[in-house]
C-alpha cells in the first residue's frame, strides 16, 4: 500500500499525496494547474466543454479516449495519462491539424465549447483515421455547441482526417514510452486522504474484495457518470470511496454466451454487441455521449439500481445473469431478480458485481428502444428490451422488459402472456400493446407523464411488429458507424 497518486499530465509526471475522494479532475486542472482551456459548462458530463483525453493501459496496449473531466474524480486517474488542449501545439507552438481545420472551416464562434470539441475530434482522429460523417456525428454526441449548427465542425473533422499525420503525432510517437511509465505506476493498493476524506484504489479484484470486507459501507466508484453528480450537484460526501474503473475488464465469448467483467465500459462492449447481437448495437450508441460511454461501465449501471438505467431492460430481456462477490464467495443471480424495489437490490454490504453473463440466442427476434427528450446524450424516459422467439410462425417465448415504468427495471408479464402461444402477427402485438397497461403504474415526473409513458410502452409493441414484419420500413434512424 502506498499513499501516493501518480499519473502523467501532458508531458509531466505528477505525484500527489493529498487527494480527497470528491476532488475532480476538472478542479485540479483549472485551479491547481491553471490549465484553463478545459472549461466547466454543465458539471454533469452533458455538454463536453470539459473534455480531455485519458490514456489508459489495456490488454491491447495504451489507448486514448475522450472523457468528461467535470465528473471524473482525480483519484481515478492513477496510472493514466491526462492530455489537455494545451498539449496539442507542436514544438514550435503551431496549431494541431485538428485546430487548423477548425480555423479554416469556421468551426468556432463564441469559442467556449471549442476546446472540448477539439479534444473529442482529436480522440477520433487518432483512433479512426478514416472516420466518415456518421462517425464524426457519434463522436460529437457529448459536445454541445449552440453557435455553429455543427456543419462546419464536421467539415473540419473530415478535412483533418483527409490530411492525416497520425503517425507523426506526439501521442503516437511516444506511446511505448508512456505505456512503460504508466505500467511502473500500477503497483499495489493506493490509499489517499485529504481533509478527512479517504480514497482507495485497489491493486486488483482480489484486493477490491478485501477492501470492501474492511469497508463494507464504502461508496464504489466505477465510471462516476452518476456518482460524479452526487458531488457536483448534490454536494454529497462519498468518503470513503473505492475507485474500481481500472478493474474487471475481462471478456470471454463462447457459442452460448458473452461474459463481461463488470468494469467493461459501454465503449469496450460496443464492438462485441455489434458482432454478436447486432440488432441492438444502435441502442448502445444512445447511452450518453462518447465521453460518458468511455467512462460508464455495464456493471455499475446494473449495481446503481436506477429504474431508468439504460442497460438493465435490454439485459433482462436477453436473460442475463450477474455474478456477485463478497470476499472469496460468489453467487450467480438472474438479473431480473437482482432488483427488489426502488433503491433496494439483492446486494449485501461489501458485496459487488463482478461479472455480467449474457446468453446468445441468434434465432430470437431482438430490439431495444430508448425514448428521451433529446436523441443523443440524454436521460431515458422509457427504455425497453424485446426478445421474442418464433417457431413455425408461432410465438413460443417472449421476454419484454421496461425501464422508467416502475420503481425498478421490470418484465411486462401480462404483455408477454398476450404474445406467447399466438401467431407471429399484428393482432398478437396489438393485444400485447393493450395488456402492457396492466403491468405498470408509472409515475409522472419532469421527463414524462404517466399517460405518456403508458402510451409509449404500448406503441413500442406496434413498432417492434413493424420492424420485424417489414425490415425495410424506415421506422427509425440508424447510425452507420464504421460502414
Automatic annotation (TrEMBL):
Membrane-spanning residues: none
This enzyme's EC code(s): 1.17.1.4
Source organism (scientific name): Paracoccus onubensis
Family matches, as Pfam families: CO_deh_flav_C (PF03450), FAD_binding_5 (PF00941), Fer2 (PF00111), Fer2_2 (PF01799)
Residue ranges of domain 2Fe-2S ferredoxin-type in the record: 3-88
UniProt keyword list: FAD, Flavoprotein, Iron, Metal-binding, Oxidoreductase
InterPro entries reported in the protein's UniProt record: 2Fe-2S-bd (IPR002888), 2Fe-2S-bd_dom_sf (IPR036884), 2Fe-2S_ferredoxin-like_sf (IPR036010), 2Fe-2S_ferredoxin-type (IPR001041), 2Fe2S_fd_BS (IPR006058), Ald_Oxase/xanthine_DH-like (IPR016208), Beta-grasp_dom_sf (IPR012675), CO_DH_flav_C (IPR005107)
Ranges of residues in domain FAD-binding PCMH-type: 192-363
Protein name according to UniProt: Xanthine dehydrogenase small subunit
SMART domains named among the record's database cross-references: CO_deh_flav_C (SM01092)
PANTHER family: XANTHINE DEHYDROGENASE
Gene name per UniProt: xdhA
Keyword Metal-binding: yes
GO MF annotation, one: 2 iron, 2 sulfur cluster binding
Native organism taxonomy: Bacteria, Pseudomonadati, Pseudomonadota, Alphaproteobacteria, Rhodobacterales
Amino acid at each position: 500500500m502506498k499513499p501516493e497518486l501518480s499519473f502523467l499530465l501532458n508531458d509531466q509526471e505528477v505525484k500527489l499525496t493529498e487527494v480527497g475522494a470528491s476532488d475532480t479532475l476538472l478542479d485540479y486542472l483549472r485551479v491547481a494547474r491553471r490549465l484553463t482551456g478545459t472549461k466547466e459548462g454543465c458539471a454533469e458530463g452533458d455538454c463536453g466543454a470539459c473534455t480531455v483525453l485519458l490514456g489508459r493501459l489495456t490488454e491491447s496496449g495504451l489507448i486514448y479516449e475522450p472523457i468528461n473531466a467535470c465528473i471524473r474524480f482525480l483519484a481515478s486517474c492513477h496510472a493514466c495519462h491526462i492530455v489537455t488542449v494545451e498539449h496539442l501545439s507542436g514544438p514550435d507552438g503551431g496549431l494541431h491539424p485538428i485546430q487548423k481545420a477548425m480555423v479554416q472551416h469556421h468551426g468556432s464562434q463564441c469559442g467556449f465549447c471549442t476546446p472540448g470539441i477539439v479534444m473529442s475530434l482529436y480522440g477520433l482522429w487518432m483512433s479512426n483515421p478514416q472516420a466518415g460523417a456518421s462517425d464524426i456525428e457519434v463522436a460529437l454526441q457529448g459536445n454541445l455547441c449552440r453557435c455553429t449548427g455543427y456543419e462546419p465542425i464536421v467539415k473540419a473533422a473530415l478535412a483533418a482526417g483527409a490530411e492525416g499525420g497520425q503517425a507523426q503525432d506526439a501521442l503516437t510517437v511516444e506511446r511505448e514510452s508512456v505505456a512503460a511509465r504508466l505500467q511502473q505506476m500500477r503497483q499495489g493498493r493506493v490509499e489517499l486522504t485529504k481533509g478527512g476524506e479517504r480514497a482507495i484504489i485497489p491493486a486488483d479484484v482480489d484486493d477490491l474484495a478485501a477492501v470492501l470486507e474492511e469497508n463494507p459501507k464504502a461508496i464504489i466508484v466505477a465510471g462516476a457518470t452518476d456518482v460524479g453528480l452526487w458531488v457536483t450537484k448534490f454536494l454529497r460526501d462519498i468518503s470513503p470511496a473505492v475507485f474500481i474503473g481500472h478493474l474487471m475488464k475481462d471478456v470471454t465469448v463462447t457459442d452460448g454466451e458473452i461474459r463481461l467483467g463488470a468494469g467493461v465500459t459501454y465503449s469496450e462492449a460496443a464492438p462485441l454487441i455489434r458482432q454478436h447481437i447486432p440488432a441492438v448495437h444502435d441502442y448502445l450508441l444512445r447511452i450518453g455521449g462518447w465521453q460518458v460511454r468511455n467512462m460508464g461501465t455495464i456493471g455499475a449501471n446494473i449495481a446503481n439500481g436506477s429504474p431508468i438505467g439504460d442497460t438493465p431492460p435490454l439485459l433482462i430481456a436477453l436473460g442475463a445473469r450477474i455474478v456477485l462477490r463478497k470476499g472469496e464467495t460468489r453467487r450467480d443471480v438472474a438479473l431480473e431478480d437482482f432488483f427488489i424495489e426502488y433503491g433496494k437490490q439483492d446486494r449485501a454490504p461489501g458485496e459487488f458485481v463482478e461479472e455480467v453473463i449474457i446468453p446468445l440466442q441468434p434465432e430470437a427476434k431482438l430490439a431495444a428502444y430508448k425514448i428521451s427528450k433529446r436523441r443523443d446524450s440524454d436521460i431515458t424516459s422509457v427504455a425497453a428490451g424485446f426478445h421474442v422467439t418464433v417457431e413455425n410462425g408461432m410465438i413460443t417465448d417472449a421476454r419484454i422488459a421496461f425501464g422508467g415504468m416502475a420503481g425498478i427495471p421490470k418484465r411486462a408479464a401480462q404483455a408477454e402472456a398476450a404474445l406467447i402461444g399466438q401467431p407471429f402477427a399484428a393482432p398478437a402485438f396489438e393485444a400485447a400493446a393493450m395488456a402492457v397497461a396492466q403491468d405498470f403504474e408509472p409515475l409522472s415526473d419532469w421527463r414524462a407523464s404517466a399517460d405518456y409513458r403508458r402510451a409509449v410502452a404500448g406503441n413500442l409493441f406496434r413498432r417492434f411488429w413493424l420492424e420485424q414484419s417489414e425490415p425495410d420500413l424506415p421506422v427509425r434512424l440508424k447510425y452507420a458507424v464504421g460502414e
